[in-house]
Amino acid sequence: MIETFRPLLDAARGVDLADPESARAALSRRLDPHGPAAAALNRELVALLDAQKIADRGEPPVRWSRVSKANPESSDFSIDAVDMNGPGPHHAHPNGEVNWCIALEGDPRFDGRPAGWVVMPPGSGHVPTVSGGRMLIVYLLPGGKIEFTKT
Length: 151
Description:
Layout: H1 6-12, H2 20-30, H3 36-50, E1 57-59, E2 62-68, E3 77-84, E4 91-93, E5 97-110, E6 116-120, E7 124-126, E8 130-142, E9 147-148
Antiparallel strand pairs: 1-2, 2-3, 3-8, 4-7, 4-9, 5-6, 5-8
């Protein structure tokens, strides 16, 4: 299954996440969220979701799954898939976070951002929240580093 995520891993490899807007622009050059490759990838990811092969744990507003731990095959990113239509648990990103967001219902926003790439810089934290609809989000965490925290 990890090969389905290869376009995201290839796009994210080597991107400096310190400046989220620059990182998002670099990611969009590598995999344009509005291009045909992204459309094909989104269809594959939604098919996995519909087949309950990803994001098959938990209850709304957050259903999730771990696709892969960080390892050489995943370019040292962990891969998580999350089906969201509300807030998730507060967490911090020691090494940053790269998110690929797919609109499933309505006009959803992930932390105020539309579908496509969303980047959180190293050292940041948030309560991940989808508003205005429902999204499938693929989280790539460099080194698999995440810290769940209480707010």
